[in-house]
Amino acid sequence: MVRCRGGVPGLLGPGGSDFISPALCEADLMRRVLRADALATWLAGFLPGLAEDGDPLLTVPRVLDRTVGKAVHLLGLALSRAWQPRLLAPYLDTNRQQRIATATARQVSDVAREIADGDLMATHWLVSFGVLAVQAG
Predict the structure, then answer these.
(1) Where would I find the H helices in 1-137?
(2) How many angstroms separate the CA atoms of 98 and 66, rounded?
(3) Can you give the residue ranges of every domain in the chain?
(4) For residues 49-85, b (16+ Cβ closer than 10 Å) or e, as one string?
(5) Considering the entire predicted model, what is its pTM?
(6) 62 contact partners, CB below 8 Å, separation of at least 6
(7) How far apart are CA 77 and CA 130, in angstroms?
(8) Residues 81-101: pLDDT tens digits?
């Protein structure tokens, strides 16, 4: 991943049809390989704005047509923006942990109805992302 001065931009991807965030995926990978103290330091440099006010990684993606296959990927993005920050939260300060808890609950609740009652374009795969989001919370 290309790094910019002051960390990686949270908006480096995803595109309009992606269902994961490259920045959050990289941070989650590092969570799995670094010691806790090293991860906290690395995370502060890589995503210094994570869970700050207005963090784009915590906003719910807007889906205009929930029956269009590629557009529905943004619902998966919402769920991945729930499970990955929840796994990273323990390495952040209390205020950021609280912001993550609030924002990720919003991500999950926005997509939950699609898992149960949505179009086949969403329901056939969103349940797996929903399980990951719930387990991470």
Answers:
(1) 22-33, 36-46, 69-88, 94-117, 120-136
(2) 30
(3) 22-56+66-136
(4) bbbeeebebbebbebeebeeeebbbbbbbbbbbbbbb
(5) 0.86
(6) 74
(7) 11
(8) 999 999 999 999 999 999 999
